[in-house]
Amino acid sequence: MMLGFEIDTSSPSRFALSILPILLIGLRTTILAMLIGFIIALVVGLVFALLRRSAIKIISWPTGAVVEFLRNTPLLMQLFFLYFVLPEYGLVLPAFWTGCVALGLQYAAYMSEVYRAGLEALPKGQWEAATALNLSRARIYSAVVIPQIVPRITPAIGNYLVSMMKDTPILSTITVVELLNLANRIGDRTFEYLVPLSVVGAIFLVLTSVCSAALRGIERVIPKKGIALK
Question: Which domains does the chain carry?
Fold first, then answer.
């Protein structure tokens, strides 16, 4: 018995069906970690992109250094740093939230480059027209810039969402009980790893396929040219 569920190992099909309710508990953790990390990445990535575009070097240069550090170091190293090193300096986070922050920061660095590419692809005349109309900086971004870059960056951001989902198993290294962690525990308990790992692989395949299909649908709905300044 595991988590109140009976595990039937008499046949592969019975084994798979009996462990499915257990794995669904881990699936909930996996999806929550992905969604929270994705929200962090979207927001922090945009902040990184805007700060990096600042004309003030004391702002843009350190931001660029942070982005490059996050992009060029392994996610596992960052995860261990947040979970094992920061508590030595008084900053302690639960394992789940540590994992969400680590995922969010790593992908925020990637997404900042996506945002930057979208901003630089915006025609210079749009910036000049908005400035000529004496629009505030906030108004320029909310009404002119962001609506036009969203169609350009949606495919890349969607790819990072799928990649983040596939990276969530790394959270098991800091004791987060997500999907793969539970599959390994079932294997340890039953000494049968093929079925649990195969079921987890199938679940990830279904999830990523659904996400990819949804993103393609969103791309078709969003106007290709965005909202032009008039």
Answer: 12-221 (1.10.3720.10)
